[in-house]
User: Fold these one by one.
Assistant:
Number 1:
Amino acid sequence: MAHTSELAGERRVALVTGASRGIGKAIALRLARDGRHVVLVSRSSGPLSEVKSLIESAGGSASVCAADLGDRASWQSAVERVVEERGRLDILVNNAGITRDNLSLRMTDDEWDEVIRVNLTSAFVACRAAARSMMKGRFGRIVNIASTSGVVGNAGQANYAAAKAGLIGLTKSLARELGGKGITANVVAPGFIETDMTSGLPEAVRSKVLEGMALKRLGVPDDIAEAVSYVASDGAGYLTGQVICVDGGLTMC
Ligand code: NAP
């Protein structure tokens, strides 16, 4: 027997960070297509408004919330405001992320701190702020976007891999703490996906990655959105604490 049911006549509310481009934009469009009201978050409101228009012209529902995830206090207030204004938050996708790559011996404190703050601390802050509303509704889907770097490590990305591995520990702990309240928490870990983040990848690295990849192509944002759509669905109520690597068979972890 299913433990949850679709909301009668009401859209579930989803918040997606980093929704202005790349993977986050694809996730937002997909969740809107799934019938969710999507709250679009990133620093720049212009691109978010364009995503909102795309969603609305396809018959969906969305709103814009411009926020800097690196500013802990204002980010927490922004999530609390969304919950207050919409009266609920059912789906939280912590997708926004940055890289500041360097070899560990050369990595500066700023490079370390910024990546941990934006990629990991912001996700904790949002989960904590969202969990109260989810507990009240006895339903929640937390989806944290990590990376295969957080599972297998990556030379030159100690800060990024540590943040992404931290997201995995955070997610599994939340799954254990919140499971009794109908809230699931899972990680989707992309491999190499064609976005602005990977556009500067040198050709030699690209070829090497493809060589070790079962599916022999880099992923596209929709590959990740497809996985998130399922994990965030009402039907995925028995899936929690999992790390789903969507990486074309690169790591098979
Ligand atoms: P992207 O194209 O660089 O987009 C990053 C998004 O995060 C943008 O919407 C950006 O918007 C937002 N963002 C960055 N810093 C922010 C901040 N301080 N506050 C608010 N929003 C912020 O990245 P992507 O490739 O789509 O990656 C999305 C997620 O997937 C990231 O967590 C990344 O680590 C992960 N991932 C990507 C790949 C890949 O191959 N692309 C692989 C593994 C994991 P603004 O700049 O407007 O704020």
Number 2:
Amino acid sequence: MRVEVVPRDPETVATPLMVVLVASDRPFEELGALDRMAGGVLGRAVRAGDFRGRKGDRVLGYGDDREGPDRVLFLGVGHSASLTGEGLRRAGGSAVRAAEDHRVSSLALCPDHLGGAADSSRVQAAAEGLVLASWRFAELVSPDHRDGGEALAESDGATDAGDRGGTGGGTDVGDERTPPPVEAAVLVGRRAAPWEEPVRIGHAFAEGENLARTLQARPGNVATPSHLAAEAERIAAEVGLECEILGPGEMEAERMGALLSVARGSREEPRLIVLRHRGGDGGAPPLVLVGKGLTFDAGGISLKPAKGMEDMKYDMSGGAAVLGAMLAAGRLGLAANVTAVVPSSENLPGGSATKPGDVVRSRAGRTIEVINTDAEGRLILADALHYAAGWNPAAIVDCATLTGACVIALGHHRSALLGNDETLLAELRAAGDRAAEPCWPLPLDGAYRRQLKSEVADLKNVGGRPAGTITAACFLSEFTGSAPWAHLDIAGTAYGKPKKPYLRHGPAGVPCRLLLEWVRERAGR
Ligand code: BES
Ligand code: MN
Ligand code: ZN
């Protein structure tokens, strides 16, 4: 989506839809000129008590045929003192949904009447809401299925085919055609000049996250490890990053036996993707982002049950978020050295697959007894983390759909956060709050390490059912060397059915914007 800042009076801007944000505590008279052009609907709604500027309050008017907006939607956002970034992100999302309802492909958003509440972090959030809401995944739907999906609707038996009129739209059952994509938005206001920079940032953050969501949404037969590697190369060329791809031969040479042991069960070759953004001082140690890029997790020989297994195409969500973050870091030229590492493999039960009880040797030299081949994420991350730890990084942050136990512990609202450095953990908590991609700490003390003791190897890859998220992080901590390190378990947050106007059901792109908020904070100090 294109987003521009237009420093003008909203009533002078030609647009099919002008969404005007209204705080409950600001004088409605300020909106007089706009309301007159919209036929006075706001004044009447206020007098009738229907519109008070509360969150969710809305009233629609139509322009009067001259220059200016065709439609004006006044949207309440609540009291300006309690207005958060997330409030504006949601408002941006609601604006795009309104454009879809009216079947228009561009809109204007006017936060001018929020006064001082339209500061740079809230304007950034509004831009994010617009861009995130515009995301769709239609690349695998044929053109003749895009409008309404009538063939599908008829075959599911839920509606009477006779009611539909056969042409899609214009019948009394309502318009079920897919609305056209919303491709352009402008932020309008008299005092809009200072919004340029936050809009540039919010736009890039959200486009990065949208890329993550697209990669997530692609099914396992499309988004293979080599596909992710090709995407990384494309991103690198687009925004000027260095890209290095390791295949099985290089992994062999690097003695990445843990990563290779996971890939053995599949015909698809594994890849280890490295992207470098050099935005900081020449010799400054990098911030390293590591993302699990398991493109389909069938569990291996410890095969998963069939129900819901299709969701395991999302097991590369951590890698997708990291690639999206690199796209944005490169585009914005963030002033930090950032390196991304994405170990990527399938986990299938082929004839050469690793078996329960097998012992494999990691790059760190530690031997691992593979008790359960479904605990594969920690194996591919072990070698990736150890590889990254060799670069003397300023910090390593990994993110991974690592444990089902995390969904039990925290559900779908927060990622789990564990690590070995309190300062880094506090920074990530704060970054998650700013991005509305919140996380919450779990403990990581030595006592849990005992659950990973093996009779035949240096450690085993599962620690039993108790504290599954913690023992998984314990396992990772064995491979990070002395670097400050933190781990985000995103099994419950990377995809799902969020109830937010700027997200759709499916992939969320989490924690792409959290990572970017963190990198930007580090870059600024
Ligand atoms: N990718 C899964 C974790 C997962 C589960 C992500 C549900 C998203 C939703 C991971 O590879 C896995 O299978 N973990 C096992 C570990 C167990 C065998 C110790 C799990 O959580 O069941
Ligand atoms: Mn698994
Ligand atoms: Zn997995």
